[in-house]
């Protein structure tokens, strides 16, 4: 029997497995995908995510993979531009935006190096339960047939459409459907050291530099205003560039003259939610437990933060099963407390208030993210959960 089965081996699941393995637990990760592989994500990390990569000893690996160190941020509001250097804080002086096929594999490799087992091409189809209903493992399907993975605790890290949440019967505690759509592609030739944010009425766009002299260029607007892209068929990428040039010409003109290297991807009206994220023998982490619109660019940092909170709670629970209810409850309470302000700001920003109000909300968001980075630099999760348990 394993100590923990983690279903999902991307950034939330792999980070959870890595941390638990470093704590000395017997962990197996399963994922239906083969790694490395991409997933829908604009993948720009805020400072808190970089802080955790640094604390875990992985930031140098991310930089060595070719993800450039971002040392400044450019803000453009209808042609009025400001550039600010990223000052040292919480132990880091840069941001990074590694492609997901690189970041997820790097984390999974780190988990394996720490002692976890990785099984790809395995789809979790059901749960093993004890006579009293406690989750005690996973039933999966692979190319070689049915597999059973008994475990003391099962973690669902399988994304916002989590099948594990369904199997667990996890209740949705709060939900809000975003009225926005987001599209992105990759472009060569943009500055490799600069995050860009461009604001115009009902428009938010930006640039996250990444591997191979490429940058993720993205556009977010109310869904109805992006119909020219959504209905353009084979011309969607051309329509995307047309919209950028019309709405945020500072960026659009440069994208027009540079080389687009990937198909346009996107999503509309994504759910923002919090789920009940623990029960007898089970837990949810990352987007499986809570998800927000990409307008605040916080998903990977959420995943890292929650992975550390959950790993700490599981560690206490495995060492002393009598504290499991309190430790796991504390995991969710601390997660919700740390995520609450950004969740509320996300919901407000997706409403695209007038530009002055949008800027005010962005300033509040920036302050919240910097304070979060300070917390993560000396992460309080272990002590908080230990005292609660």
UniProtKB/TrEMBL annotation:
Q: Which residues form the FAD-binding domain?
A: 2-344
Matching InterPro entries: FAD-bd, FAD/NAD-bd_sf, Geranylgeranyl_reductase
Pfam families for the chain = FAD_binding_3 (PF01494)
**Could you tell me the superkingdom of the organism this chain comes from?**
Bacteria
* Gene Ontology molecular function: FAD binding
Q: Could you tell me what this protein is called? A: Flavin-dependent dehydrogenase
């Amino acid at each position: 029997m394993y100590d923990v089965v983690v279903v999902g081996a991307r950034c939330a699941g792999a980070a959870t497995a890595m941390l638990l393995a470093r704590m000395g637990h017997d962990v197996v990760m399963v994922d239906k995908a083969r790694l490395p592989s991409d997933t829908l994500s604009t993948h720009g990390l805020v400072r808190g995510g970089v802080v955790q990569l640094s604390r875990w000893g992985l930031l140098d690996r991310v930089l060595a993979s070719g993800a450039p160190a971002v040392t400044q941020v450019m803000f453009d509001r209808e042609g009025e531009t400001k550039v600010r250097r990223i000052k040292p804080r919480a132990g880091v002086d840069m941001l990074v935006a590694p492609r997901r096929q690189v970041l997820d594999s790097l984390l999974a490799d780190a988990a394996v190096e720490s002692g976890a087992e990785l099984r790809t091409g395995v789809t979790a189809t059901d749960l093993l339960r004890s006579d009293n209903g406690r989750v005690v493992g996973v039933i999966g399907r692979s190319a070689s047939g049915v597999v059973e993975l008994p475990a003391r605790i099962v973690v669902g890290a399988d994304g916002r459409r989590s099948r594990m949440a369904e199997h667990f019967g996890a209740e949705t505690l709060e939900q809000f459907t975003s009225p926005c759509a987001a599209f992105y592609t990759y472009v060569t030739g943009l500055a490799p050291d600069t995050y860009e944010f461009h604001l115009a009425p009902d428009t938010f766009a930006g640039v996250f530099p990444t591997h191979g002299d490429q940058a993720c260029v993205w556009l977010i607007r109310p869904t109805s205003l992006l119909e020219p892209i959504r209905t353009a068929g084979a011309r969607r990428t051309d329509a995307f560039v047309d919209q950028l040039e019309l709405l945020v010409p500072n960026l659009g003109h440069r994208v027009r003259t540079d080389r687009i290297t990937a198909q346009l991807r996107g999503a509309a009206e994504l759910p923002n939610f919090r789920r009940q994220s623990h029960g007898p023998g089970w837990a949810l982490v990352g987007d499986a437990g809570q998800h927000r619109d990409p307008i605040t660019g916080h998903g990977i940092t959420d995943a890292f933060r929650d992975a550390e909170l959950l790993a700490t709670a599981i560690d206490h629970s495995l060492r002393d099963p009598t504290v499991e209810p309190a430790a796991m409850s504390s995991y969710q309470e601390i997660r919700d407390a740390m995520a609450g302000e950004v969740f509320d700001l996300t919901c407000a920003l997706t409403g695209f208030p007038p530009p002055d109000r949008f800027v005010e909300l962005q300033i509040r968001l920036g302050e919240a993210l910097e304070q979060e980075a300070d917390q993560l630099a000396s992460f309080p999760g272990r002590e908080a959960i230990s005292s609660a348990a």
